[in-house]
Each structure stands twice: as C-alpha cells, then as structure tokens.
Amino acid sequence: MGIHLRFYILLCGLGVGFFGTAQELLTVDEAVKIALENNYQVKMARNDLKMDELSVSPGQAGMLPKVDANVADNNSRQNLSQVRSDGTEVELDNAKNRNLNYGVALEWTIFDGFRMFANHEQLKENQKLGEAELKQVVLNKVGEVLVTYYDLVQQQQQLSALDSTLIISEQRVELAQNRFTIGKASKLEVLNAQVDLNTDQTQMQRQQELYKNTKILLNEQLARDLKMDFVVAPEIFVDQALILEELENKVAVENPQLQAEIINKRISELQLKQIKASRYPSVFVSTGYNFGHTESSLGFTTSSDSRGFNYGFGATLNLFDGFNQNRNEKLGKMAVENAEIAIAQQKQSLIAMVGTTYQTYLTNISLIELEEKNETIAKENLDITVEKYRIGIIPTIEFRTAQLNYINARVRHSNAKFQAKVSEIILKQLAGNLDL
Prior knowledge:
Layout: H1 3-11, H2 28-38, H3 40-55, H4 58-61, E1 66-83, E2 89-111, H5 115-181, H6 187-221, H7 244-254, H8 256-276, E3 282-296, E4 303-316, H9 324-390, H10 396-430
Antiparallel strand pairs: 1-2, 2-3, 3-4
Helix pairs in contact: 1-5, 1-9, 2-5, 3-5, 5-6, 5-8, 5-10, 7-9, 8-9, 9-10
C-alpha cells in the first residue's frame, strides 16, 4: 500500500481504532441515572428531606394533648414514738409505711397566642426548604457528572488525534529512513523525524494518564467501583437554542438557591409570629384518673384507698419580662428585613452569573464554527503537504508544521465544543432545569 493512501486512511478515521476494544459504553443518561441512585451526597440530602417530612405533624407543632401514665410507690420503715392529744404515748419499732399512687394524666394547651399554628406552618416551610436543598444538591452533582463526562468525550477525541499524529510520525520516520538508505536524505532528517516521534509519544502518555485519572473521578462521582473501565460517547452535541430572556425568567422561578432564600424569609416571618404570640395568654386544660393506696403501721388510719377523676384549667400571661418581648420582636423584624435583602442579593448574583455565562456560551458557539473550518483547512493543507513530502519537494520542518497545525486544529475544535457544552450545562443548572 502506498504511503499516500495509508495517510489518507489514517486521516479519515484510523484513530477511532484506538477505542475499538470491547469496553462498556457508558451513555450520558446512564451516568446521570447512576449518580442519582448512588451518589452519597444525594442520598444524605434525600434522608434530610425525609426527616423534614416526618416532622410535619400537629403533634410536633404542639397542637395535640400530652398524655402520661405515672406510678409512684414509696415505702419506709421507721421507729415511731407518738404522743396523742389525750396524753397517750405510743411507740412502735420498725413501723412500715407505704404510699402507692398510679394513674393517667392529660394536659392540653388549647391556646398559646397562635404560636402552635405558626410552628406548624414553619415545619411545612422547613420541608419546602429541604426540597429546594435536595434539588440544589441534585443539580450540583448532575452538573459535575455531566462536565466530567463531556471532559472524557473531549479527551477521547484528543487521544484519537494524538494516535493519528503518532502514526503520521511513524510513517515519517519510515519514509525518512528509506530516503536515507537510497541516498536521497541525510541522517539529520532521520534523527529529526525520530525526535518528533518521541515527542509525540511523550504527549500521548501524558494524555493517557489524564484520561485514566478522569475516569477514576467519574467513577467516584457515580459512587461505583473506581476501577470500572468504560468508554463514553464519541461526540459532543451542544444545544445552541438557549435564549437569555428565557433563562433569566426560569432563574426567578426555578433556581433552588433563590427559592431557598424566599423560603427562609417566610420562616423568619413565622418565627416573628411565634415571638408575638407571647403577648397573648396561654390557656391549658388538664384531667386524669388516679388510684391511691396508703398503709401506715401507726395512727388512727392504718390503710386507705382512693380512685377518681381530677380536672382543671390554667392560664398564664406575661406581664413584664424586662422588656425582652419588645426587644425580641425588633430582632425578629430585622431578621425578616435581612431575609428580603438576601433574596435581592441572590437574585442579582444569579442574573449576573447567567449574563456572563451566556456571553461565554455565545463565544464558544462561534468558536465551534470557526475551529471546524480551521480543521477542514488544516486537513487539506496536510494532505497536500504529505504528497509533497513523499516526492521530496518540501523540507521536514514544513511537514512537521502542517502535521502539528492539523492536530492542534482538531484539539481546538474539540475543546471549543467542550467549553460550549460546559457553558450550556451551567446555564441550565442556574435555570434549575437540567435534564435529569
């Protein structure tokens, strides 16, 4: 096979064979699914939400009565000496006394200035806050997985490009050696070709190291066996239809960080409502059923038994507490104001981040088109240079320059698509609508 034809086959896709082993293909959808099932931080966030959900109950808010069962059995043995009213003296050693009481008691706060209702609403808001925090954790973890995944796609493409340049350099060494053998080239040309080949091999090993380390990182993010081998998709497809105004609108509605700040403001308002409840009286009722048994070795009554209901009500009202009530209400109002400021700050920060990331996104989209054209031009230039080098009408430095220009163009094209994809992921993550 002629060298020109061998180069042509190489440049048309010989590098794909670098990944042609029987490795598992991990799709991006599978990676996201595994991360959502296995990632440790996602699991902990789910458990935190379950705890918040369990806390939302009237009993936790203090709306329901408290019922206790109680028993008390007190015994004593004493040496007693009594002088009765009629002057009679009675003495008894080792006298036994026993007092046994048991029963059921209920206590129920029926009014506390609406504090219990505010507390119940706060528990609901805590659950909503847990949902927002879980969504934020999921978006962060999925975003990390997607970025690492597409970084691997880019690295696969760069390995393919480096594999191609290795084969080109090997063919160049072979051709230079043949030309030297027949006396058409100097030994210097062979040595230069060998040095360039060694340089390409070094770069290849560095890139392979980075590729393997990134695989370990992705396996760690998926919380699975770190040694599991796989390949990823061969290409990066960028959503080029994102619109800035739509992203900004989604941030205001769906971004979990902003939603968490809004929920925190509502919680501050409910906490202020609980503080104000102290201005009202607290009213409670109580009832119970008790049994009693008493024994005494000495006295007019040696034993007695009792049983029956008891009931009543009570109320408390704070009249003066050192002006703490007014002070606590002022502090509560300031907490609400700070929550409003935090919302405005968070919204401005997110909108600014969307704006700057969107500009980067547009730049990367433009660079994809430019680098694609550069790769096409560089390939055509290399094809011409290979033919000229084969017939010996150009110097080796010009051949090497054309070779590096083509490889660099492929790497830049791949990197432009990766950077555009990263910008897309960040924008969708900020908008709270990453494809899960």
